[in-house]
Amino acid sequence: MDKKPWKYCLEVRDLTAGYGGKPAIEGVTFAVAPGQMVGVIGPNGAGKSTLFKAILGLIPRQRGEILLHEAPALSQRPLMGYLPQLEEINRDFPVSVEDVVMMGRYPRVGWCRQPRPADDSVVRQALARVDLVPHAGTQIGRLSGGQQQRTLLARVLAQDPHLLLLDEPVSGVDATTQHAIFALLEELRENGKTVVVATHDLNCVVERFDQVLCINRRVIAYGPPKEVFREDTLSRTYGNHLMVVQVGDRRVVVADEHGH
Amino acid sequence: MIDLLVAPFEFGFMQRAFVGGVLVGAICALVGTYVVLRGLAFVGDALAHAAFPGVVIAYLLKGNIYVGATIFALATALAIGLVSRRGRVSYDTAIGILFAGAFALGVLLMSTIHGYTVDLFSFLFGNVLGISTRDLLLVGILGAIVVLTIILFYKELLLLSFDPTVAEAMGYPVQALNYLLLGLIALTIVISIQAVGIILVVALLVTPSATAYLLTERFFRMMILGVVLAALAAVIGLYLSYYLNVASGAAIVLVSTCLFFLVLASRRLWTAKTRRA
What we know:
The complex is a heterodimer of chains A (260) and B (277).
Chain A: E1 10-17, E2 25-32, E3 37-41, H1 48-55, E4 61-68, E5 71-72, E6 80-83, H2 97-103, H3 106-109, H4 117-129, H5 145-159, E7 163-167, H6 175-190, E8 194-198, H7 202-208, E9 211-216, E10 218-223, H8 225-228, H9 231-238, E11 242-247, E12 250-255
Parallel strand pairs in A: 3-8, 3-9, 6-7, 7-8
Antiparallel strand pairs in A: 1-2, 1-4, 4-5, 9-10, 11-12
Helix pairs in contact in A: 2-5, 4-5, 5-6
Chain B: H1 2-6, H2 12-38, H3 41-60, H4 65-83, H5 91-111, H6 117-125, H7 133-152, H8 154-162, H9 164-169, H10 174-215, H11 219-244, H12 248-276
Helix pairs in contact in B: 2-7, 2-10, 2-11, 3-4, 3-5, 3-10, 4-10, 6-10, 7-10, 10-11, 10-12, 11-12
């Protein structure tokens, strides 16, 4: 494999995508340098999930280009790890935590082959990183929401992708899981992974992310949180679904998750 | 007692029926695991009905009914796959139109034959007792194709069934895998027509696997348990059919249904007991 450092891990150019007549996102352009952590924020229905799905080729693209390491992303999909929103999985399916995490290895194992011992140890490591080793043999429906989310995250880790696309990894999970997930993201960054996360937790974005992409059908702003988090950009992103609350000497931003 | 169990085996047709029944049940349960977990019972029923005109045409042309059924079932599987790629008419409506139309074509063709009722009856409800050595050979070959395909694509079909979105995100050709699964269901139905007939195929495809689903939380165990339950139903059903002189296909299906309700009831009882304790 070519070892030259790429300027960008992910480049999205003029992306317009969505079903039917009115596209859910229009003319979206941004680029992510390798090893960066990018938060994608915007109200519900702003197109955060659509953006992820379009990058992964899950929904039709009407215009634009998506490059991973300067080559079309769709030809290298196993290099992109995707964590969908939690409600999209079938909890009654007869598989254990371990089985689900092993699925992340499938593209590397290859067609018509069995996972090897090396794959088992990758799965073990991924389970250890999300603290689920004791639950390896548990059926996924028997887990708490946070544990299910960590299981799916472990599957992404086992896939060992270059780019991680995480769609609201901390929504609807307990505080312990939230902290675990964010600690894990830090660790990934230290290992040089590129991570793009859709989230509603703006304060967390300020504290932990390198770049913020504010999106509301179009890109409203893109840059380091300190530059982007100004009242005018946030109000253009969220319209009325945002409150700025003064807590002691800190201003805390609260996004309305349910976006009326 | 032993005599009662051994007696049916004195007849060649009963020996063939036991082999055929167990073989067909086992293959149905393997494929049925996917059918149950992906909610494809209606699709399975539709494929079975759509195979009917193929059976009738083969019969009229004095050809092999398995060949006719295979062509029609696979063509319908393809059509269902195409229809599912979005359109104004919903998926289940399209399937309803397709299979009822195909079935009507079969009935129409059948009605052109003088005194057709006896043969029609055997196609619709099957007759495992009439299975020939040649039929068994065909069932064996087609069954081997189905089993081999499942072994080769085990991982991919598992991922497709559990999480099609992530399968696609990882770059798997999800549409092609869907066709593969529909094709497997179609072949399985063809294999089963002689044994249980078009109307009852869906029972073999769904019931043993659903029973197994009540008993385990692991995919592979569900497959194996389904096979065991299906084989058990075939054997008990054939004994019942032999001693009570009742239709063999219906007996196998009813034993399978009874097993399902037995397991369901004992699970309920067990859950109630543990809740009280």
